[in-house]
Amino acid sequence: MTPAHEQQVAAPEARDGVTALLERGRTMSTPVLRAAVDRLAPPMNTVAAYHFGWIDATGRPTDGDSGKAVRPALALMSAEAAGAAPEVGIPGAVAVELVHNFSLLHDDLMDGDEQRRHRDTVWKVHGPAQAILVGDALFALANEILLEVGTTDARRATKRLTTATRKLIDGQAQDISFEHRERVTVKECLEMEGNKTGALLACASSIGAVLGGADDATADALEAYGYHLGLAFQAVDDLLGIWGEPAVTGKQTWSDLRQRKKSLPVVAALAAKGAAAERLAELLAADAKNPEIGDFSEEEFADRAALIEEAGGREWTSQEARRQHATALDALRGVAMPEETRQNLFALADFVVVRER
């Protein structure tokens, strides 16, 4: 059973509305995003184009999967929340998407992931050096795009983006350090995921409003919505990282277990009482002393996943996704905005929690 089936399934019209919002974000931001990538010196421009799914490994145009476009959609909606036109949020949408993909390029290399969006990752095709360089270039471009707007509000937006990026990097460093520890607390895991995922979604949810001239109180409330939405998003990702269908997620079976990730289901299971939690702790302690985890059989990974579920880690994480979803919606209660925009933000939050990839 996938996380999407652990929730009440959204009505078809609601899903259609979110699909339209995501497509709007992608359609409005992609031309500016492509123009930004075109500024890169060869071969970085083509390597980046491959990463975004615009070309294949031989350079031929393709209609590859370029991701869900949640962050661009949020940036445009946040501009509308401040009473501005969605176009005002485009530089923020592009900047956040550039930072997000900078992190993906580096994460894939650090984690040794060979697949993303159902095809080989950049480091696998073009080598580690290009993955690092292109990632760095995308981060620089993000700040360049925002600062070129040239307003005081753009400088405010750039400050929020750089702070979010620093937190994102903090989260990645925490995530890596956890792989070498036998025990991580639930509190530590939530802090890491709040940095790694929540910070950038928080920025996406407020950056358009800042560009539209919103005051700090409004921007902070939208940021809180995005932060908790990010924690809900990551909780679902953690479920998919263990129990997701490879044909849907584009990753290997038991992906997070292969990487020794101390994700929420693992950490919650270890914090539980009972025989399953104790057995899981014994296995993970032995794993920490064995550098050849990649040689484990599918059955051994399946056994670990079963212990995590038996100890309650799967159910706790599913409930945590719902808790964070509710907290995200609560953050918007006191914010004055057009009712249509509020309902769109609510619908996008539902989409984030009810998904299969």
TrEMBL record:
Pfam families: polyprenyl_synt. Keywords: Magnesium, Metal-binding, Transferase. The keyword NAD does not apply. InterPro entries: Isoprenoid_synthase_dom_sf, Polyprenyl_synt, Polyprenyl_synt_CS. Belongs to the FPP/GGPP synthase family. This is Polyprenyl synthetase family protein.
